[in-house]
Amino acid sequence: LHAFAEARRGDVHGGNCPDIPDTRIAYKRSTSGGASWSALRILHHVEGRCHQQPTPVFDSRSLKNAHAEPVWSVAWVDKGEDKGEVLVTASTDGRVLEWTLAKGLEASCLMVLKQLGDAEGVISRTASGLCLDIPGDDPALYLTACEDGAIHKCSDAYAEQYLESYVGHTGPVYKVRSSPYDPKVFLSCSADWTVK
């Protein structure tokens, strides 16, 4: 479970605008279904913005390279000291994006998902991304699963090709999860009523 919240430290502006105290975006994670939580992490500090009503601090709709269709999956990834934490998203627009908050909300394309093989009569070769997971300790690698039933192992170093592709489902794959014990092992579940 992932929890995001607006964290405030009282009214530091003398009561003129009660909606601009010392505000931060806070995050906690639970790997036990909510029984216990990680330490509080501050993701972003919002300075001097008066909204009058609680509103999103960032809105991707204003970005030119934002997703054009619904986002189905998000994952926080620690890219180390140089890049810090980023958000990776998969969407039915066929793109996997990496989001940073260093200079405001910015997105860059990691991969445009393509359907495998010859697809006669198909209008678009773009594959809809339905889920993703970050296996093991290498933040440059990720698994993404598609509406066509394929699962792809990708790297943020190769935006044009998959490292590996796995075909075992006959319907859309709605979840892929890597083993916490062996990054080479993962489970997937699909609309074809199977878990593999």
Description of the molecule:
The protein has 196 residues and is mainly β. It is 0% helix and 41% strand. It has no helices and 13 strands. A four-stranded antiparallel sheet has the order 4-5-6-7, with no helix packed on it. A hairpin with a 3-residue loop joins β9 and β10. The protein is globular and about 55 Å long.
Regarding quaternary structure, what we see is: single chain
- What summary fits the major beta sheet? 4 strands, antiparallel
Global Rg: 19 Å
Give me the secondary-structure category. Answer: mainly beta
Strand order of the largest sheet: 4-5-6-7
Shape: globular
Q: What percent of residues are in strands?
A: 35-45%
- How many β strands by DSSP? 13
- List the helices and strands in order: EEEEEEEEEEEEE
Percentage of residues in helical conformation = under 10%
Low-confidence stretches: none
N/C terminus separation: 23 Å
The number of helical runs is: 0
Q: What would the average pLDDT be, to the nearest integer?
A: 79
Task: Note the topology.
Layout: E1 2-8, E2 23-29, E3 41-46, E4 71-78, E5 85-91, E6 95-100, E7 106-112, E8 129-133, E9 141-146, E10 150-155, E11 164-167, E12 173-178, E13 186-190
Describe what is shown at a glance.
The strands form four sheets. The chain has a four-stranded antiparallel β-sheet with strand order 4-5-6-7, with no helix packed on it. The protein has a four-stranded antiparallel β-sheet with strand order 8-9-10-11, with no helix packed on it.
